[in-house]
Amino acid sequence: MALVPYDESSAVPALAKLRESSAEFHFANHSVRLTQDWNRLGVAAVVWDAAVVLCMFMELGHVELKGKTAIELGAGTGLVGIVATLLGANVTITDRVPALEFLAANVHDNIPPSLQGAVKVSDLTWGEGLENYEAGAYDLVFGADIVYLEETFPALLRTLEHLSSERTVVLLSCRLRYERDERFLGLLKRKFTVKEVHYDGQRDIHIYKATRTADKRDL
Ligand SMILES: C[S@@+](CC[C@H](N)C(=O)[O-])C[C@H]1O[C@@H](n2cnc3c(N)ncnc32)[C@H](O)[C@@H]1O
């Protein structure tokens, strides 16, 4: 399975900041300092623009977070889940097993003791072990830059369907690099009502809101 979202040779300037050993942000009145390690874990150990844009979107108050139950898929360094926790949600932050130790350390280092009980780091490889996650139990499902591997699209869709009920809001923050990424949105629209709710032109990041509607459930 390809590990990078795009051909490295065509994206050298963009990759420079990904190779730094840490990335710092200020969200929700907190400094968030995330360790990065491209050489150790590749895409899962660096902060992608899609995560930053989704955090800005949340901080601007576009998402009701207080007291909500949320899950983040393909969290990488965990920025989105960390900021959602700081803004008042109860968050399960997930990624594949190889990324978990790194993710858990970043989450632990950036969540104040009083909020450690509101966050959990957990293994979720898309499409696998879904029975470990209660079906339709989440108010919010987040994904930042997780639409890039065509071979994972069916499993990712199954995962989104499993986690969502009709009251769930799925927020996908995406850079659409290839036609295949657009194809994923087409597949998503077969089961969800999908609306673009934000576009950051400077970073070329789209945020899509997807909600599962009763009439699309059985199509
Ligand atoms: C481009 S990175 C984005 C990381 C983070 N969300 C961000 O925006 O900074 C893609 C993430 O998806 C995760 N991922 C890739 N395939 C996956 C799969 N089949 N199941 C779960 N996570 C996966 C990777 O481990 C990685 O953390």
UniProtKB/TrEMBL annotation:
Any one Gene Ontology BP term: methylation
Q: Which Pfam families match?
A: Methyltransf_16
**Which UniProt keywords are present, listed alphabetically?**
Cytoplasm, Membrane, Methyltransferase, S-adenosyl-L-methionine, Transferase, Transmembrane, Transmembrane helix
Parts of the chain that traverse the membrane: 41-61, 73-93
How is this protein annotated for GO cellular component? Answer: cytosol; protein-containing complex
Q: Does the keyword Transport apply?
A: no
List the catalysed reactions: L-lysyl-[protein] + 3 S-adenosyl-L-methionine = N(6),N(6),N(6)-trimethyl-L-lysyl-[protein] + 3 S-adenosyl-L-homocysteine + 3 H(+)
According to its UniProt record, where is this protein located? Cytoplasm
The GO terms describing molecular function are:
methyltransferase activity
Q: Which family does it belong to?
A: Belongs to the methyltransferase superfamily. METTL21 family.
Name this polypeptide is given: Protein N-lysine methyltransferase METTL21A
Originating species: Alosa alosa
